[in-house]
Design a protein that fits this description.
The strands form two sheets. The protein has a two-stranded antiparallel ribbon with strand order 1-2. Strands 3-4 form a two-stranded antiparallel sheet. It folds into two domains: 1-157, no CATH class; 160-281, no CATH class. It has helices at 2-38, 43-60, 62-77, 79-89, 93-107, 116-136, 143-146, 149-157, 179-205, 215-234, 240-263, 270-281, 286-297, and strands at 159-160, 163-164, 330-331, 337-338. The protein is an all-alpha fold and 360 residues long. The protein is built from 13 helices and four strands. Strand 1 (159-160) and strand 2 (163-164) form a beta hairpin. It is globular and about 65 Å long.
Length: 360
């Protein structure tokens, strides 16, 4: 057991060492860059450096975030079909497994795809936390902090409007309560509130109604209120410098998720209905856009339909585009009526229905 734990520890250190070095390198240059503007050895410079580092890391991880969101969305979209398979083959587990794998292959869905990007992000976030936490406590983590001890000392002893970046809310002697504790408390509350708003936005706007019912939905609602409370207690022992990173990270997540939900929502959700109505007002076809996005996710080329001038798109025509004509307005999942876009074409009878006058 001891040998096994030692091997796990060596493997973990082998992964974290280059990541710690990379994070310390970026943080060092962010600090030196801001030092030319706001001056060295002050809390504003270090705070801006930490915020810049967080933004850089999150920009690098954008492709993984998009992949994670798309994978989770695709899993939501096939839930009705999976429910049908469970109702049909519920007694035959082997047949159910085969049909489920067949469905996922046809839809281009991989359950592990939503977890894998998150797994890749965890070492990066842990390295960022480790470097900041160590520097805030006077311990050099990362190659460039180890070889630049003056930076570690600067971060350890600097303060932001009287609040030490290495300090935290919890005190052994509460008679020393001051600016550090007030700043830490504000950041902890902000961190918890941002997390709550982000999850509430996701559940209220970008989840279908059926996903908000049942035992899984109840667990999600419980976690929605439980995690902010955990954050409140956990944040009491976290240094102010790390809290600045965490708040910046939560702000980025909230804004990024808002933009994604607004511009590429999950079908069958309130956000999707809002997006459809917005596209229609702009003169665009939401169904065509959604189909193109699905084909792109499946890595299949979008099929193009050729149309001959003069072909009818009226409901009574029998031409190639007759099946694509729109009729009455369609109602969305939440009861909102959406008017579909109709492209007006010159109406001409097709060859099959055209009659020629008989010669007298």
């Amino acid at each position: 057991m001891i040998v096994l734990l030692s091997g796990i520890g060596d493997f973990f250190n082998a992964i974290m060492t280059p990541l710690n070095a990379a994070i310390s390198f970026v943080l060092m240059w962010c600090y030196r860059g801001w030092a030319y503007v706001t001056g060295p050895d002050n809390g504003v410079t270090w705070s801006l450096a930490i915020m810049t580092l967080t933004v850089i890391v999150r920009c690098i991880l954008i492709p993984l975030f998009i992949r994670q969101i798309n994978s989770a969305r695709n899993m939501q979209l096939i839930q009705p079909k999976m429910k049908e398979l469970q109702d049909k083959y519920g007694a035959d587990r082997q047949k159910l497994g085969i049909e489920t794998q067949k469905l996922m292959k046809e839809e281009g869905v991989n359950p592990m795809a939503s977890c894998f990007p998150l797994i890749l992000q965890m070492p990066v976030f842990f390295a960022l936390y480790q470097v900041l936490y160590g520097a805030a406590n006077g311990q050099a983590k990362g190659y460039f902090f180890v070889h630049n001890p003056d930076l570690v000392q600067s971060l350890t002893h600097t303060d932001l409007f009287g609040a030490r970046l290495a300090g935290h809310f919890w005190l052994s002697d509460w008679s020393q309560f001051g600016a550090t504790q007030i700043c830490a408390l504000i950041l902890v509350i902000a961190m918890s509130a941002l997390f709550f708003i982000t999850q509430k936005q996701l559940m209220g706007k970008n989840m279908p109604p059926e996903a908000l019912k049942g035992p899984m939905a109840q667990q999600q609602k419980m976690m929605l209120y439980l995690f902010p409370i955990i954050y409140l207690f956990m944040g009491m022992a976290i240094p102010v410098g790390v809290l600045i990173y965490w708040v910046t990270n939560n702000v980025w997540t909230l804004v990024q998720q808002y933009l994604l939900i607004r511009n590429n929502p999950t079908p069958g959700t309130p956000a999707y209905i809002d997006w459809e109505e917005r596209m229609i007002r702009q003169g665009k076809d939401p169904q065509e856009i959604a189909e193109r996005r699905r084909n792109k996710q499946k890595k299949q080329p979008t099929t193009k339909t050729t149309r001959t001038v003069g072909q009818s798109r009226t409901p009574g025509s029998t031409g190639p585009d007759a099946s694509k004509s729109t009729t009455a307005p369609a109602a969305g999942p939440s009861g909102v009526v959406r008017q579909q876009i109709q492209r007006q074409q010159p109406t001409r009878q097709s060859r099959s229905t055209r009659t020629t006058p008989k010669k007298k």
